[in-house]
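Friendly challenge for the regulars: who can give me the structure tokens for this chain first? No prize, just bragging rights.
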Amino acid sequence: MTSPWYKSVFGLRGLLFFILGVVALLTILSPLTSTSYDEASSAGSSIHVPNIYSNYRRIKEQAAVDYLDLRSLSLGTSLKEFPLCGKERESYVPCYNVTGNLLAGLQEGDELDRHCEFEREKERCVVRPPRDYKIPLRWPLGRDIIWSGNVKITKDQFLSSGTVTTRLMLLEENQITFHSEDGLIFDGVKDYARQIAEMIGLGSDTEFAQAGVRTVLDIGCGFGSFGAHLVSLKLMPICIAKYEATGSQVQLALERGLPAMIGNFFSKQLPYPSLSFDMVHCAQCGITWDIKDAMLLLEVDRVLKPGGYFVLTSPTNKAQGNLPDTKKTSISTRVNELSKKICWSLTAQQDESFLWQKTADSNCYSSRSQDSIPLCKDGDSVPYYHPLVPCISGTTSKRWIPIQNRSAIAGTTSTELEIHGKSALKNYWSLLTPLIFSDHPKRPGDEDPLPPFNMIRNVMDMNARFGNLNSALLEQGKSAWVMNVVPVNARNTLPIILDRGFAGVLHDWCEPFPTYPRTYDMLHANELLTHLSSERCSLMDLFLEMDRILRPEGWVVISDKLGVIEMARAMATRVRWEARVIDIQDGSDQRLLVCQKPFLKK
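First reply, four minutes later:
Bragging rights claimed.
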């Protein structure tokens, strides 16, 4: 699929379609030459030849299937619905197969990271919700109470998770209740947030924004109570934690409607650009910071903005390491030793919490001692799961702006934001409000629906550009937060999005997104399908992935050209979505495809 093939499906003459079909068949049936295979074999041990062949074969087979689907559409025949997956796929997250990674030779923690290159072909099917799944409760109630059947955690796991968790959560019949005042290891989350504010020099946690703190990366966030409190303060926290098959921190946080995604950086960089967050927070996150030449701490430094804060909360009397007890040191002591080499300063300490501040002066790095950690030769490459680096990044970036001095968004202008903002979204609300944002939309299959009729807590903007859908939601007074996704092969506008104080991430839509099933209420894709038409992506796999991460009764809004929308509507029927095409009536061939995912009850 290397050209905008969708134009040939609708409205072109049969002769043209026949010629394109012949070209497609010649392409997909061409054999893999031995020369290509030999070149791959001689490229060194770092290249996995079987995986290259497997990827080629998968693309080849996918092209054949896509061609047959195009042919069916051109002949006016209906496409079959995808079958329903088995029970084993209810909580399945692709690219996190630890067993498969170990068999592939990964070790020393690398097997825990994301590895889509080892993902095996699986049956294309629609993931069903668990038998006891229920539609989440509306905010703010749903932030503190979730249905236990919606997440993969057993009663035994809950009871064996320790005193911290049992103080944080209460399991009652089919519900899990979160008590923000009894969370973490403190008197309460509010008191803890107030303590951090005091360590910065503020009078209250309501003044975080005055210190330049708007975005917080919360590593190993537990079940999201600290993040929930930050959301109530109008800050934007993003929880990241490693993949967990059961009892997942990320799954529970997302079920509460809080910003979270699977993110582990033991061997690979996080999918964020340098200088992304105002604060990085780690409360007993279980990371040993001084291993691997301190590259884990250097990754925190990479994503931390100038003048930003690193908060580490850990028992001071808990020694770690393989040395005799007399030589063991606490986590905070080892971090403090490393901080001097990367231009951090220990600003404050209260009880078990430590606060470091990253330098706001880039000249600090040239005045360090000879044995300090070197500076990276920063290039223009997009940090999409690259290997960790043993050097300091971002020091020469144009975005080196201390968070306390931030007054403008680097890399764009207000005019550019306006062009891609209000003017581009002007007609959205009049068209979508009756369908999605109304107080009384009818659920499919319900003759007399009971309140709450609809709920949008979070939105994934799959081709976010400058984050203007996020901005429009805020201007409309919607309480939903947005995960702004920037495709890796598009213009990298993620720094702009993060500088606006929004949540965002880089992602390759030819791969699955790092989240659990049923975690988003609404998906928005503006010209994403046109963008992907020249990529190696499979349209079928993309729609199945969208269905996997969308909760039952969730919404999909696709904006694109008419030919693309017709193809998308055909694919929507294959995943059992209810779909309708809307003409935005602006004189162009742009259309909206609005879909709702049904609740497939067992």
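The longest helix spans residues 49-74. The first strand starts at residue 145 and ends at 147. Your move, everyone else.
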